Amino acid sequence: MIIPRVPVQHRRLLPDRRLSGPTPWVIAILMMLTLLAAAAGVGLARSANAIGSAIAGRVTVQIVTANPVTRAQQAAALRRAAAAQPFVRSARSVGQEELQETLGQWFGSAEGNDPVLQSLPLPALIDIDFVGEDRSGHMAQLRALVAAEAPGARIIPHAEWLGPVAQLIRSLAWIAGGLVLLMTLASAAVVIMTARAALATHFPTIEILHLIGATDRQITRLFQRRIAIDTAYGIALGSVVAAAILLLIGWQWTGITSGLAATASLGPAGWALLLALPLLAIALAALTARQTLLAALKKIL
Amino acid sequence: MTDAPSPRPGGAMVEFDSVGLRYGPDAEVLCDISFNLQPGSFYFLTGPSGAGKTSLLKMLYLAQRPSRGIVRLFGEDLVHMPRQRLPGFRRRIGVVFQDFRLIPHLSARDNIALPLRIAGVGEEDLSGPVGEMLSWIGLGDRADARPATLSGGEQQRVAIARAVIARPQLLVADEPTGNVDPEMAMRLLGLFEALNRLGTTVVVATHDIHLISRIENAQMMRLERGRLADPTGALRYPPANRV
Question: Is the confidence metric ipTM above 0.90 for this complex?
Answer without folding.
Answer: no
